[in-house]
Amino acid sequence: xxSTASSLCHFPYTSSKLVSRVRTxxxxxxxxxxxxxxxxxxxxxxxxxxxxxxxxxxxxxxSSLGDLTKPDFPILNQEINGVxxxxxxxxxxxxxxxSVIKSLEDYYKLYNSNVxxxxxxxxxxxxxxYEGARSKVANxxxxxxxxxxxxxxxxxxxxxxxxxxxxxxxxKPGDEIxxxxxxxxxxIVPWQIIAQKTGAILKYVGLSKEESPDMEQFKQLLSxxxxxxAVQHVSNMLGSKMPxxxxxxMSHKFGAKVLVDACQSVPHMPVDVQKLGADFLxxxxxxxxxxxxxxxxxxxxxxxxxxxxxxxxxEMISEVLQEYSTYAEPPSRFEAGxxxxxxxxxxxxxxxxxxxxxxxxxxxxxxxxxxxxxxSLVCIPKVxxxxxxxxxxxFRAPLCSFNVEGVxxxxxxxxxxxxxxxxxxxxxxxxxxxxxxxxxxxxxxASLHFYNTKEEIDSFIVAxxxxxxxxxxxx
Length: 475
Known about the structure:
7-stranded mixed sheet; 39% helix; globular; disordered N terminus
């Protein structure tokens, strides 16, 4: 992470006394991260302004993780059409705990200022918070250094950054990019555009009989022509998980780079980029209990250093002359203009909150919910669930995309919300290629997070059965 002195990069002649004053008048941006690694007994004594701590003791008796954390999410404590809200649309976006909401409020009430560009207290404080959030994200995914974290508008922009900066500079006619048919549109469309511009060729991995991306086909597609493999870690429709370590190892043998779309994994399980070995990894704040409007790209520093800027403007430069400019080192090189400062601070608070619960605890609890959801749904007649069945050897994310024979998924989602207050999603889930592969145009999807409970799944199942009965009564 950049030191406080780096916030003075636009003031190269600032005296050391001023630098010292800024350092001593602002809290250490590493402090929260260090505290987050201390024992829970110590954390209990901290003020809420220091670290985002769940409001209830997570070691409490027989209560589920969902019961213990739900009070932290004020939006969940409301009624929809006279019935209590059951929010099962977490693969689209997660809800935000009070601590994250408060971090945004505190930033704009107490610290609002532009980062990296001022010597005054507010600017130095805002810079500490912004760079502190970068360090928190780096620690959260075990990146070797915080300068390998680039803040972006969202994961889509992060993929586009790699596509335009790395892709246009490295791909040539005949080079191959391997994708899967299960990719989100954000990991397909940018590569289609780049392929059109460079003459590169897109290769798609299809589905296995278990309805996961077919690893045997992937192995067959790999060749010396492969320059990039861009794959999801967890599918937002199938709930399947890709063996990223294996994919990286095989791809690197052919000299190919690997980009991982981790939007559906980072919020739900421990993710260690050093263990995965991927060259690039992207995720979005809004799916991990943070604000909208910010995401991040992780990239190996040697790769980032070799890439040209994605956008030009202020902040990303070293020196600007009339004829040309020189560029800053990453991450500044890829963060042109005023960034989403408050949103990044909120993402840092979300990382604090998730870290206090523990990603292993979240993953274990959500595995239970995933099996419970699948087994409850598969028992309903005329329901078709997409993706692999969960088992001791097969991971399935806590989501189910499904269709009901003879009933349009949008009709299901509409009535289940209007009559029962259950929020699910319908449509193609930004995965039209996958839907065509499955022979459908749309599906309904129920997706869970750690603040959901088995009782809410029961409510969803009751609501779905009632909705199916209503529509089938006309046939």
